[in-house]
Amino acid sequence: MQIVFPIVIDAVAYASWLFIVSLGMTLVFGVLKILNMAHGSVYAIGAYAAATAVALAAALGLPPAFSLVAMLLSAVAVAVTVGPLLERGLLARYYGRDEVVLLLVTYALFLMLEDVTKLIWGVNPYYVSEPAQLFGNVLFAGMRIGGYDLFLMVLAAVCGLITWYVLNRTTSGKIVLAVIHNPEMSASMGVNIQRVYVVAFTVGVFLAALGGAFTAPMISVQPGLSVSVIIISFAVVIIGGLGSIQGAAVGALVVGVARSLAVHLLPEIELFSIYLVMAAVLIFRPEGLFQSVKARLI
């Protein structure tokens, strides 16, 4: 029992930030049908922007609690600048092309953004632990739990619930669902498809940047950050099923549990455990846990 509780807490904490990032990726794929390789780069930009914003807030003498607001604002700033720029400026030119072409375009974008982050922020690591220190530790069942981990769990739940509510309980969300199911019919009914694409992609960018911003206090923000997160995010959305919010939540939990078990019991197979679970799911459910089987069009 003494080891079960830490495994569960670590698994849920890891799954929390991973769910936020994967939610953006699965949303973009669900609406635009783009497997966005550059999603990890946006995550890294969000982390760098948050580190810069927190340092700037501290230099201005603002209260430490404002660092949380600074991280949120940095994610919003990344979303409103990078999202429309990438979608309208680049990806829109390739709509209607083969999915492989779009995948290669986003991969090229991923490589370029990796170098852009180096040009802007350099190659030295950034550390912004102050926001995490605000929450201290919480004593529960004789164990000390990081308060920031609990905060991330709440943030992930809020992001998932808001996204689900907007898509299923609002008029705008139902328009997005209509575009997902049949963009041609939606366009014939007067829906502005381009606007839906821009908004959906920008929201996806915001979620990636938000995940990067609020993960920054727990990690060393440095080059290569985008590579690790994009691989694990792919594992999450593949396990859960591309385009499924519920799938992203369950996929993140599955990955979190697999990693946590490996870290506590057999650290040598930390990364291997994630790919092992993904391979096992693909053997029995190639379309993912929450994606229905579709007939292939010839």
TrEMBL record:
Key words, A-Z: Amino-acid transport, Cell membrane, Membrane, Transmembrane, Transmembrane helix, Transport
GO biological process, one term: amino acid transport
GO molecular function: transmembrane transporter activity
UniProt keyword annotation of Membrane present: yes
UniProt KW Cell membrane keyword: yes
InterPro entries for this protein: ABC_transp_permease, BCAA_transport_permease
Pfam families: BPD_transp_2 (PF02653)
Protein's name according to its UniProt entry: Inner-membrane translocator
